[in-house]
């Protein structure tokens, strides 16, 4: 039995436990993910607000959608909410989005919930393993800072979020696309100019500034990524396809408590 076959399920299981248990630092390539928060380009205030939105969304969904067939994951970055997982029907899927729309300060929703059977523990373990490999490879890529990327994997599809320059986003997506088991890479970035990216990193490392909520931006929903492209550079191995997935503009949605 190879070392990788032994360590892979153990590492994946550890990642799942850590995810369920909260913000426990996970060692990846010699670095703890808990330390990455120090240079997150979001301010401490923005990170706190994102966490509050995530906790409230998870609790409201869990308390409302009690069907055992429902499995919805919530990820928040800069008040944009990514919903992934599986639900039994379109009505349940719409209900999950409606729940999130009612949360204050949500400015966008990316709907990636599948109408499908609930994923197995094996599938989630594999997703956790892919996420750990993507993070490790981002850390080992000198041209970018892994700290600025948020990585989510669902059924082999990798979602990348972050405040990044276009070049950083391209490099990060290319890195993720070459990981074994990745089916597709979806870029959900918010792009900033290179000089702005550098300024945000410098400020985050020194003295993070508080964030100011912008209630004028109502939550909108996108169900499909916008545009499609593939990696054109000669790959180290066969890359997974990469697509852009920004939030589409939509009709104003009134938010509440």
TrEMBL record:
Transmembrane segments: none annotated. It comes from the Bacteria. The keyword Signal applies. Residues 200-257 are annotated as: Disordered. The lineage of its organism: Bacteria, Pseudomonadati, Pseudomonadota, Betaproteobacteria, Burkholderiales. Keywords: Signal. It comes from Pandoraea communis. Residues 214-231 have a biased composition (Polar residues). InterPro entries: BON_dom, Lipoprotein_DolP, Transpt-assoc_nodulatn_dom_bac. Residues 49-117, 126-193 form the BON domain. This is BON domain-containing protein. SMART domains: BON (SM00749).
């Amino acid at each position: 039995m190879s070392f990788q076959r032994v360590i892979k399920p153990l590492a994946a299981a550890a990642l799942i436990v850590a995810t369920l248990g909260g913000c426990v630092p996970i060692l990846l390539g010699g670095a703890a993910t808990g330390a990455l928060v120090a240079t997150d380009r979001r301010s401490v205030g923005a990170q706190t607000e994102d966490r509050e939105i995530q906790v409230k969304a998870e609790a409201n969904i869990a308390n409302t959608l009690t069907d055992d067939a429902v499995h919805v994951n919530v990820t928040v970055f800069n008040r944009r909410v990514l919903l992934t997982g599986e639900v039994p029907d379109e009505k349940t899927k719409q209900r999950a989005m409606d729940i999130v729309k009612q949360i204050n300060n949500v400015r966008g929703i990316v709907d990636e919930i599948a109408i499908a059977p609930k994923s197995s523990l094996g599938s989630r373990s594999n997703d956790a393993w892919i996420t750990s490999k993507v993070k490790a490879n981002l850390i080992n890529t000198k041209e970018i800072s892994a700290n600025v990327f948020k990585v989510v994997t669902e059924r082999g599809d990798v979602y990348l979020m972050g405040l990044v320059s276009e070049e950083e986003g391209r490099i990060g997506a290319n890195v993720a696309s070459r990981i074994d088991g990745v089916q597709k890479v979806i870029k959900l970035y918010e792009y900033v100019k290179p000089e702005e990216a550098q300024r945000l990193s410098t400020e985050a490392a020194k003295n993070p500034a508080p964030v100011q909520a912008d209630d004028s931006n109502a939550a909108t929903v996108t169900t499909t990524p916008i545009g499609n492209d593939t990696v054109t550079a000669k790959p180290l191995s066969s890359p997974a396809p990469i697509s852009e997935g920004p939030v589409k503009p939509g009709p104003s949605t009134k938010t509440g408590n």
